[in-house]
Write a structure and sequence with these properties.
about 20% helix, 3 domains, about 625 residues, 28 strands
Length: about 625
């Protein structure tokens, strides 16, 4: 891609409309599977076809970190190639594992800090389109977003296995798809490892860490006295449903024989979805012992189900039958890539960073490496940070491979810090930050370290992320290109504590018990921006309320789902229209998204922009956090 073309998609704010407003693009199958007349055999494997692909950003791994990184980079104009070794995207959130996505808004703890940005967009689409909680529809949603984006080349069932370097830079990688008999050689200026297990970093010779650091190394009370190679174990989940007749269960001979003593620290309150504490293998080689870990986890899960069905302690389970059992261990920890900064327990409790690009907030949630075999110990130990914490850009790129970045559970962190940063919503926002930074590095022809060391460029990156609804604690909109910041505001009405001027205060979430940062008024309602002199206007961006005070995730657990709205969120504007100097420029009848962008067909001279909201999905109030305007 030429520099001027990439610049069209990357500035102090995104010029790309949200994915749901784009015309879906059919994937270029001829590019990834050339016609017979142009096929070339792979040099080392004559029965495989060699395909050369060039990109601006290469991403290994299609979990939520990789998905969000790919979408962020692509929406900022970068050509992206993403390889995923499974047939489904989403990693541990996919239908292969069925782990619900958690992050800074904890189940028991921190309302108002649900992650914004791309992961919020995905969650809102899922809630609106998938009220019946189908995991396969979650898979399909992720596939749709990536496969139909014109800047993303998606290679599923494709495994990265080699990297070629020149000096401290990766030049190319090799990935193979045995199902289609292709070997791909991919070049890019920026490479992103979102594999969780740091496979790209391994091939590139990046500095990494495994296991747990000794307590004195970083002065971390959560760390053991002596360093070791142990980590958190893997889990296999199951689901069950109730039938109108008894459903017997006979455990296979190889299932564990589970007793009440095994469960004294492990609660069985319901069994439609169980259980994260069916965990094992943290004291083994979590990667190379995968088959042994799978076998033991299946035997434990079947043993627990046998206990529920046949011990006599849970007679209400008589009509319940297991209807799904995971076959892929959901990994928590393995290798972590060392960056210019390693997040520590102290950083999560009290640190802050000038190059902050994302937030975390899940507790430091450590588990005994022996997992279920340590029935004498509680299955986890929790230490909550006093507030959400920021994650720096310097923890998202490699210390010794100059064009390698990372996002997900393999970011630069000690084991103690990793026990918090590993959860998938945090992985997702790190992915959005890394993908946006990768696109910026590609256009500026610089390394991630050069970006991190340039204060002006870091500020531009941060403002770009804020404009894309990423949250960075303590930062607000200071985008000089936002014309709305120079406007006057008035509204049809405003409720006490929710004044119209709040849409220009630069903050886009309320924190319960603290200040509010959005406008409210009875429906129907309008709010408008005006300028003393006409401004050149091309794009209008609105941030609505989508109920950040609630959890929002896809889960098979009825107790978790109880507090979740599996539909368009009631606070969100459903029907609205935009007028420029009294002339309607767009009308929307069934919106469910929080962040909505509208790009005009041609620039206009404008003195007044009015947003009229006629309906919300379940509220009688109009609620708007921010309006931005760009030339």
């Amino acid at each position: 891609m030429k520099r001027r073309e990439l610049l069209a998609g990357l500035g102090t704010y995104s010029l790309v409309v949200k994915a749901q407003d784009l015309v879906p693009a059919r994937p270029d199958f001829a590019r990834i599977a050339p016609a017979a007349s142009s096929r070339q055999p792979s040099p080392d494997e004559p029965h495989m076809t060699r395909v050369d692909l060039a990109s601006d950003v290469f991403i290994a791994g299609g979990g939520l970190a990789g998905c969000c990184a790919a979408l962020a980079a692509a929406r900022h104009g970068a050509k992206v190639v993403l390889v995923q070794d499974r047939s489904r995207l989403g990693g541990n959130s996919s239908s292969e594992v069925k782990m619900h996505v958690v992050g800074a808004t904890c189940h028991k703890g921190r309302p108002g800090w649900r992650e914004g940005g791309i992961i919020e967009e995905i969650r809102l689409d899922d809630a609106a389109r998938n009220p019946h909680r189908s995991w396969e529809l979650w898979d399909l949603l992720l596939y749709e977003k990536l496969a139909t984006h014109p800047n993303i080349t998606l290679l599923l069932e494709t495994t990265l296995y080699s990297a070629t370097k020149k000096g401290d830079r990766i030049e190319s990688v090799l990935a193979r798809c045995d199902r289609s008999e292709h070997v791909y050689r991919i070049t890019a200026p920026i490479f992103l490892d979102c594999t969780g297990d740091s496979r790209l970093a391994l091939e590139a010779g990046a500095e990494m860490r495994t296991g747990r650091e000794a307590r004195p190394e970083f002065n971390e009370p959560l760390a053991p006295e002596k360093a070791d190679n142990e980590t958190l174990g893997s889990s296999i989940l199951f689901t069950s449903r109730q039938y109108p007749y008894p459903v017997p269960f006979a455990a296979p001979a190889w299932a564990r024989r589970v007793t009440k003593e095994h469960l004294r620290f492990r609660e069985i309150a319901s069994w439609e979805y169980g259980y994260w504490w069916v965990e094992w293998g943290g004291n083994l080689d979590i990667i190379r012992d995968n088959e042994r870990i799978r076998y033991e986890l299946l035997s434990i899960a079947l043993g627990v189900w046998d206990y529920i069905k046949n011990s006599g302690d849970h007679p209400d389970s008589a009509n319940w039958g297991m209807d799904w059992l995971g076959m892929m261990p959901g990994r928590r920890g393995s290798r972590r890539i060392v960056g210019d900064h390693m997040l520590t327990q102290g950083d999560l409790l009290s640190g802050d960073f000038p190059d902050a690009v994302a937030i975390g907030g899940w507790p430091m949630d450590d588990h005994p490496p022996g997992g279920f075999d340590r029935s004498d110990l509680p299955p986890n130990t929790v230490l909550r940070p006093p507030e959400v914490y920021n994650i720096p850009l310097r923890a998202l790129y490699s210390k010794n491979v100059s064009n390698l970045m990372m996002a997900g559970r393999n970011i630069s962190a000690t084991h103690a810090a990793f026990t918090s940063t590993r959860v998938m919503a945090t992985c997702a926002v790190c992915g959005q930050a890394a993908g946006t930074a990768a696109a910026m590095c590609a256009v500026e022809r610089m390394s991630p370290r050069q970006l991190a060391q340039d204060g002006a460029k870091v500020s531009r990156l941060q403002q770009t992320l804020l404009c894309d609804d990423q949250t960075i604690r303590g930062m607000r909109n200071e985008d000089a290109s936002d014309l709305a910041r120079r406007a006057k505001v008035k509204a049809s009405a405003e409720r006490q504590h929710y004044a119209a001027e709040k849409i220009l205060d630069g903050l886009t979430r309320d924190i319960p018990g603290k200040d509010t940062h959005h406008w409210q008024a009875p429906l129907p309602a309008w709010i408008e921006l005006s300028w003393d002199r006409p401004v050149d206007l091309r794009e209008i961006q609105i941030t609505f309320d989508s109920g950040f005070q609630r959890e929002l995730t896809l889960s098979s657990s009825d107790s978790i789902t109880k507090g979740i709205v599996r539909a368009a969120q009631p606070e969100t504007a459903k029907a609205y229209r935009l007028l420029v100097d009294g002339r309607e420029v767009t009308a929307v009848s069934n919106n469910h998204q929080r962040l909505c962008r509208h790009r005009l067909d041609a620039p206009l001279k404008a003195k007044v922009v009015r947003l009229e909201i006629s309906a919300a999905h379940g509220s009688d109030l109009a609620r708007v956090f921010e309006i931005r305007c760009y030339a």
